[in-house]
Design goal:
single chain, alpha/beta, Methane Monooxygenase Hydroxylase, Chain G, domain 1, two-stranded antiparallel ribbon, 6 helices, binds flavin-adenine dinucleotide
């Protein structure tokens, strides 16, 4: 029976406020009408280590709060006018994959991505591994431009789905690696072997990642401390 480790939980995610509204900057400006809740969201209750608590907070508490807020938002707001042909980017993406003349298979690229991320960007990381991984991701993105789906059908085409998901995985891997390289300390599920100490003076802050034309841009957001003062976690 083949056994493979799997990701238990993805820490971080789409930043939201406590109403589940997606926020788009360091000042917590909400994006009107866009909500996220659950593991995909980052409402920032868990700090850098969700394993110390549980997913029920994300799902039940903030799912409910987000749902309630979305329901009242809908009552008070009308649809925004859509741009002409709003489906065009999605159509272009699908047709690019289905008409690709490249020779790369998504499964081959995904295998390398999985191995490399597991080896160099799981909990234990260091600058040398992450820098090598950054280069490897560039190579994989290049290969991904030549990816093709052998199944060219339009009904229940799971290969097409996998190709599109692989593009998302590559983007997220880049966000993860750039954020991990920048954070020169250890905290929660991020252990930098070259910076083993937690550093609240410089790093008690959230990382925000933005897709700039050529690279990932990082900004930082302060952590709001209320009742519970930060202290070293001891088991
Ligand atoms: C092995 C394992 C063990 C775990 N153990 C624990 C534990 O002991 N305690 C704990 O608190 N947490 C645990 N977790 C984490 C917890 O299970 C998850 O964080 C939680 O289930 C996430 O819930 P969710 O509703 O946010 O997302 P999910 O449960 O991932 O739900 C997302 C849903 O969206 C669907 N979907 C995806 N894409 C689309 C699309 N394009 N269109 C429509 N639907 C779509 C998916 O099919 C899925 O049903 C564990 C996770 C794993 C993997």
């Amino acid at each position: 029976m083949p056994i493979q480790p799997t990701a238990h939980y993805a820490m971080g995610g789409i930043p939201t406020d406590i109403e589940g509204r997606v926020v788009i900057d360091e000042k917590n400006t909400p994006m009107p009408g866009l909500y996220a809740a659950g593991e995909v969201a980052c409402v920032s209750v868990h700090g850098a280590n969700r394993l110390g608590t549980n997913s029920l907070v994300d799902i039940l508490v903030f799912g409910r709060r987000g749902g309630r807020h979305a329901a009242s938002f809908i009552k008070e707001n009308d649809w925004v006018p859509l741009p002409a042909r709003p489906e065009e980017p999605a159509r272009a993406l699908v047709s690019q994959v289905l008409n690709s003349t490249g020779k790369e298979r998504a499964a081959d690229i995904r295998d390398v991505l999985q191995d490399e991320m597991m080896d160099k960007a799981s909990v234990f990381r260091d600058a040398a591994g992450l820098t090598a991984l950054r280069d490897k991701l560039g190579e994989l993105r290049e290969r991904y431009r030549r990816v093709k789906a052998e199944d060219r059908g339009l009904q229940y085409n799971t290969e097409l789905l996998e190709v599109i998901e692989l593009g998302c995985l590559l983007e997220l891997a880049e966000v993860l690696v750039e954020s991990a390289l920048a954070r020169q300390e250890s905290r929660g599920g991020h252990y930098r072997e070259d910076f083993p100490k937690r550093d609240d003076v410089n790093w008690l802050k959230h990382t925000l990642a933005y897709q700039a034309p050529k690279k990932i841009e990082l900004k930082f957001k302060p952590v709001v401390i209320t009742k519970f003062q930060p202290m070293e976690r001891k088991y």
